[in-house]
């Protein structure tokens, strides 16, 4: 595996591969890799000649009460996992490489951000969109892989690609889950043993909601009630239960097209999120 640290070298390398007719799959990450990231690499490996992963902790997406400096980093471990999973090139730029001077333009996301997790993180998706657009211009991939665990981020990035005619295919990948259905997350280790048992109610509630939609239930309020009945069995505090159009992320009263059913629950030391994408005849992500 080759490690690249500069934008110029990364762009030149991608252009060289393009001239050779090789397809490029791109997996952007902030490092501290886990099985969710590895599943994205595996998907990219199947569909492309070359897999490039970036590791960059992006300061622009951290709010004033979110500690950028304390974000977990373990490059040596990440390198080992990247090699084992089949990454060809690891792009690992320094902050000064990505943002060498004061920006003359600012990217502001107007839609799909004032709901779900974005409601409590103003400006977060401006930072996400900025770094993703930069990375796509640097890596020049044919396909970019993002996990549906953060379905709001996928929706925002799809809007970015559409708005700016970025020549890349966004490939959304299914949520990776524990054997009992809990969505895998680095936050799961902060659950107490009791909370860990309770946490499966998130996916159980989403499964029940998806089945109700597939069976013909169209009232959003009914779907929310179904999920709430599951989440009320936990000791966590419900942050939100939402039924929104997807990828537009607009509220819906009647389910007629594709929707996202999403939940967030705050336990004592961990905030868990989960979701499923559903229509009247299919559910994706649970």
From TrEMBL:
<comment type="similarity">
    <text>Belongs to the pantothenate synthetase family.</text>
</comment>
<dbReference type="GO" id="GO:0004592">
    <property type="term" value="F:pantoate-beta-alanine ligase activity"/>
</dbReference>
<feature type="binding site">
    <location>
        <begin position="147"/>
        <end position="150"/>
    </location>
    <ligand>
        <name>ATP</name>
    </ligand>
</feature>
<keyword id="KW-0963">Cytoplasm</keyword>
<keyword id="KW-0067">ATP-binding</keyword>
<dbReference type="GO" id="GO:0005524">
    <property type="term" value="F:ATP binding"/>
</dbReference>
<feature type="binding site">
    <location>
        <begin position="184"/>
        <end position="187"/>
    </location>
    <ligand>
        <name>ATP</name>
    </ligand>
</feature>
<keyword id="KW-0566">Pantothenate biosynthesis</keyword>
<feature type="binding site">
    <location>
        <position position="153"/>
    </location>
    <ligand>
        <name>(R)-pantoate</name>
    </ligand>
</feature>
<comment type="pathway">
    <text>Cofactor biosynthesis; (R)-pantothenate biosynthesis; (R)-pantothenate from (R)-pantoate and beta-alanine: step 1/1.</text>
</comment>
<feature type="binding site">
    <location>
        <begin position="30"/>
        <end position="37"/>
    </location>
    <ligand>
        <name>ATP</name>
    </ligand>
</feature>
<dbReference type="GO" id="GO:0005829">
    <property type="term" value="C:cytosol"/>
</dbReference>
<feature type="binding site">
    <location>
        <position position="61"/>
    </location>
    <ligand>
        <name>beta-alanine</name>
    </ligand>
</feature>
<dbReference type="InterPro" id="IPR042176">
    <property type="entry name" value="Pantoate_ligase_C"/>
</dbReference>
<dbReference type="GO" id="GO:0015940">
    <property type="term" value="P:pantothenate biosynthetic process"/>
</dbReference>
<dbReference type="InterPro" id="IPR003721">
    <property type="entry name" value="Pantoate_ligase"/>
</dbReference>
<comment type="function">
    <text>Catalyzes the condensation of pantoate with beta-alanine in an ATP-dependent reaction via a pantoyl-adenylate intermediate.</text>
</comment>
<keyword id="KW-0547">Nucleotide-binding</keyword>
<dbReference type="Pfam" id="PF02569">
    <property type="entry name" value="Pantoate_ligase"/>
</dbReference>
<dbReference type="InterPro" id="IPR004821">
    <property type="entry name" value="Cyt_trans-like"/>
</dbReference>
<feature type="binding site">
    <location>
        <position position="176"/>
    </location>
    <ligand>
        <name>ATP</name>
    </ligand>
</feature>
<feature type="active site" description="Proton donor">
    <location>
        <position position="37"/>
    </location>
</feature>
<feature type="binding site">
    <location>
        <position position="61"/>
    </location>
    <ligand>
        <name>(R)-pantoate</name>
    </ligand>
</feature>
<keyword id="KW-0436">Ligase</keyword>
<dbReference type="InterPro" id="IPR014729">
    <property type="entry name" value="Rossmann-like_a/b/a_fold"/>
</dbReference>
<protein>
    <recommendedName>
        <fullName>Pantothenate synthetase</fullName>
        <ecNumber>6.3.2.1</ecNumber>
    </recommendedName>
</protein>
<comment type="subunit">
    <text>Homodimer.</text>
</comment>
């Amino acid at each position: 595996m080759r490690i690249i640290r500069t934008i110029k070298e990364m762009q030149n390398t991608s252009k060289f591969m393009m001239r050779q007719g090789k397809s490029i799959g791109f997996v952007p990450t902030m490092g501290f890799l886990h099985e969710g990231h590895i599943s994205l690499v595996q998907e990219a490996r199947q569909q492309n000649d070359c897999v490039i992963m970036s590791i960059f902790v992006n300061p622009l997406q951290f709010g004033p009460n979110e500690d950028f400096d304390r974000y977990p980093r373990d490059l040596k471990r990440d390198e080992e996992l990247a090699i084992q999973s089949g990454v060809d090139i690891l792009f690992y730029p320094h902050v000064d490489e990505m943002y060498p001077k004061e920006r003359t333009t600012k990217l502001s996301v107007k839609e799909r951000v004032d709901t779900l997790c974005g409601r409590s993180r103003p400006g977060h998706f401006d930072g996400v969109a900025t770094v993703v657009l930069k990375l796509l211009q640097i890596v020049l991939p044919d396909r970019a892989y993002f996990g549906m665990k953060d379905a709001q981020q996928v929706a925002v990035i799809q809007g970015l690609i559409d708005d700016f005619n970025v020549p890349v295919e966004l490939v959304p990948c299914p949520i990776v889950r524990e054997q009992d259905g809990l969505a895998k997350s680095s936050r799961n280790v902060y659950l107490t043993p009791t909370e860990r048992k309770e946490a499966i109610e998130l996916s159980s509630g989403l499964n029940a909601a998806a089945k109700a939609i597939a069976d013909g239930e169209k009232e959003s309020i009914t779907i929310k009630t179904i999920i709430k009945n599951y989440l009320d069995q936990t000791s966590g505090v419900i942050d939100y239960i939402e039924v929104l159009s997807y990828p537009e992320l607009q509220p819906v009263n009647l389910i007629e097209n594709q929707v996202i059913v999403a939940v967030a629950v705050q336990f004592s030391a961990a905030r868990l999120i989960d979701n499923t994408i559903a229509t009247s005849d299919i559910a994706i992500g649970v």
